[in-house]
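Good morning N.,

You mentioned wanting to compare the apo and holo forms, so I went ahead and generated the holo version with manganese (II) ion. This is what I fed in:
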Amino acid sequence: MAKRKIVANGKPRSLPEQTRRLWARFEPEDRVLVVVNADPDALGSALALRRLLWRRVLNTTVVRINEVTRPDNLTMVRLLRMTVPHLSDVNVSDYSKFAMVDSQPQHSPDFPDVHYSVIIDHHPAGDDIASRGDLIDIRPRYGATCTILTEYLRGAKIKPSPRLATALVYGIKTDTAIFQRSALAEDLSAFRYLFPKANHSVLRKIDFSEMRVRDLDIIRKALEVKMVRKNTMFAHLGQVKSADVLVQIADFFLKVDIVDISVVSGIFGDRLVVIMRNVAARSNAGKLMTQAFGPLGSAGGHKNMARAEINRALLKDVLGDCQDDTITRFVMRRVQRPWARIKGLPEAADQAATASV
Ligand SMILES: [Mn+2]
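and this is what came out, ligand included:
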């Protein structure tokens, strides 16, 4: 069996030894700043590190370099009462020690350029990572950094509170996409250990949080304009504030029992953006979208998700106008008969585009 590879200063070691090494990096008078790029795995890991340092340092502050915008992440921060100010809201010179979890300094120029006492992460190790900190614990095979921190907690014989267990469970769930993505026996073991300790009503609420209040208007619009053809649901939403709402609605439509494919389009900037989601085993969203929209713009994706973008000016040339009804009919026609020649598109352009696909 392959030796368990841990990039760290030192050999693979027992859980208590690993935690002792972490503690050895800190003094009781330390003020510790933990820097993250906030997502569930980073937030859960930061909370665990703060717990590990509790009563061992003067205080620990967790700061983020990004904005938290995803609804589930916002719910996580709110219900788990996490106080995570932006880096710009603190004075870096007020702190005596620095730590980073779920990232490495080279991942973003926004991270403070300091020497880190601790860097714990599961992304591939950067070339000069050894020079950036003291205790470097990088395990690229792990599905989540929360799994690594759970091992530190267990090494310290610290039983996580429901709040901490909930954060760690959600971090592991998110980064392993509920164990669909690469996950190790270690991830499963951490999950099994944490799951009974988590607050399940909070966990469900975080899972359920897929939208902001302002998104409800766009859902109403989607429900008004939706069209169903066999197992495909279509909606053209007109002008949208971001392409993300199209993705959101496309995912939302898949909640309907008979819907295997959702196709949601909208005008964003100077482009028509079309999003497809597919769960039908016999269809391939990427191929279908390439065939349907490739001759007019960029189109492609995977079996389950695909996207196309078409310049609005070209679309107007081909369709005559860019009214919502016209676009709706156009998108439905293309998806249902992707092989058909596009009327209005000069034949030469059509052939050239098709040849390049
Ligand atoms: Mn992660």
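Residues 1-6, 352-357 have pLDDT under 50 and may be disordered.

Happy to go through it together on a call whenever suits you.

Best,
F.
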